[in-house]
Amino acid sequence: MKAFDRIDRRTEDPYSSRTGSETRLVERLDPVVWGSAEGPLSPEEVQRFDSDGFFVKERLFSESEVAEMMTELERLPNLYDESAQEVVIEPGTGIIRSIFRVHRTSALFEKISKDLRLVDTARQVLGSDVYIHQSRVNFKGAFDGRAFRWHSDFETWHVEDGMPRMRALSASILLTDNTPVNGPLMLIRGSHWHYVRCPGRTPNEHYKESLRDQRYGVPPKEALAQLVDRGELVQALGPKGSVLFFDCNAMHGSTGNMSPFARHNVFMVFNSTQNTLQSPFCGLPPRPSFLAERDIG
Ligand code: 6CS
Ligand code: FE
Question: Which residue segments constitute the domains of the chain, with CATH numbers given?
Answer without folding.
Answer: 24-272 (2.60.120.620)
